[in-house]
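Quick question: what would this complex look like in 3D?
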Amino acid sequence: MSSLPVTTPLSESSFATQRGATVEYRGVRRVFGATSALDGLDLKIEPGELLALLGPSGCGKTTALRLLAGFDTPTAGDVLVDDKDVSHTPANKRDMGMVFQSYSLFPTMSAIDNVGFGLRMRGQGTRDRRDRAGELLDLVGLSEHAKKYPHQLSGGQQQRVALARALAVRPRVLLLDEPLSALDAKVREQLRDEIRRIQLELGVTTVFVTHDQEEALSMADRVGVMRAGKLEQCDAPAVLYDRPATPFVAEFVGTMNHIPGRTEEGGRVRVLGQVLPSDAEGAVPPAGVEVDVLVRPEAVVLHPAPDGDAVVMVSTFRGSSVRIRLALRDGSELLADVASHRAGELAAGTHVSLSLLDRPVLLAT
Amino acid sequence: MTTGIGGIAGAPDLAAAPTTPETGPSAAARRSRNARYGRWLILLVAAIYFLGPLVAAIAFTLKGDNGGISFAAYGDIFTTSNGQTGLGGALLYSLLIAAVSIVITLALMLPTQLLVHLRLPAWRPLVETLTLLPLVFPPIVLVVGVSDVYAWAAPPTNAAAGTQESFVFHILKFLREDSHPLLLALLYVILAMPFTFRALDSGIRAIDAQTLVEAARNLGAGWSTVLFRVLMPCLRTALVNAAFLCFALVMGEFTISSVLLYTKPFPVWLAQLPTTSGQVQAAVSVFSLLLVEVILLVLGALNVRGPAGRKE
């Protein structure tokens, strides 16, 4: 596996002055026949922000991106860039850069000609075009591959060229349509860091569509979780993970245990013999109602105990942690994450006692 | 192993022996050798089928009066004529019609097929069916239709001199003019549609046209730039293939030009040659065949893979 190529620090290049635009979706709907792909999307993206749209297939995230790129027009509502309605502006007049999932490099052009294509469309002279395209290739660590054609480059290299091509035109908004999903894991991780570094240094407003929650959480300033054409929640990754606004977000981002519980007075809930505060923010059902309590695996604490309530069924090594599947006395199952160094004491068949961390829990009524 | 009268004890061995598949390196080498012979046999049969008549024709043209070899027939082909046109004139006439047909075909079919692929994919079955119609209806049906329209638009045969000719008739007359037979080119475009559609269709399907268009548009390209700078270079092989097919069709088409009373197109010219010398006629056929092959090879050479197609 090749290591990350050496790249030029942006502070030394001519791109550091680039600034992003404000993007706003205002009540945007997009209907295809009887299907509503986007159902009243309201979202504002600040200048220089990297926003990830995350969701399952068919949730409308790509439709939202295509509406912003100008490849489609909304059925209702407006798409604004720097407070100007661009809903009906042709794609070639929007001044945006886009990186596609399938690389989409022009196969009959070399890497440097691909990067210079947008500049050529803007009437830049050959020398200026070559200089800037060369700088961009240097930026993504591919200056020695400038003369190569797309089929002579690896997938990761092609996607770097595509990124350089999108950035060469100094776009007001950078659009990333699942740019890493066709790459292998190691290259994906490298390019993820690369994209984030460049985006931060350029300060270009970026919308990043992905179905990979790890990508979204690790790269974005904010993550918008979409479901059936609607935005369920848009927040910073930590907030999204720790305080999901809906059970869907809780389920989609990370892993959740569903544990039966019962509400008590004062917005508290009794679960696995413990009484914990609920995170329902005023929407707590009255006392005595049966509820599903949502608990992250890392909030489950285990201790080996011969007379414990649960038995370890399977443990899966995950690097720094081990995920343990537990069987409870009532036949239900539970997932718990523990540090890897404890794997030895929690082998399959071990009886354990379990408790939950004392922090607010989400309820799925 | 001994066996009893009924052979029960030995039966499994005897039965298993012939059905046991051959294994090991020698069996694999034998299978590979047989497959190689099989391929050569198929190639030989195909070669005899396709090249046999050509070799026979060449042999016939080279047959001298005294039983030896003579090139006299090939010497005569440049002086032979159907009374109006020589070989060069007939070939040039057909080449020009082919060139015009190719230009019209590509100008018509490429944008149409791109539109269908990019914007109207639901229409593709309809377009595909329409392009198949020239295969369903023979050329004679097409040309009879054209003749009927021509007759309908023409002034009555007993009309007084100076009778006003209709606008449609003017257009048809212009298209049918012997000096620039656009009518033939237009009809050949229709005849070539089943072949050109498929050549272009496979080319467009082989590239991710939708994403390439979107990438180019996103970078600021107008539609003409998308077509000429992005898509057409990617479709070069498909375009050349479509041109090949159109060219080959025009150079061999006889029915339409004959029924419409054109005498200059090469196939008609060849059929109308005086039949006094069969050798000269055969020599003309062989010569024209080789000439068309050379032209196709030249066109093919123009399609050699450029730097974009070369592997490191």
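Answer marked as accepted. The CA atoms of residues 267 and 284 of chain A lie 6 Å apart.
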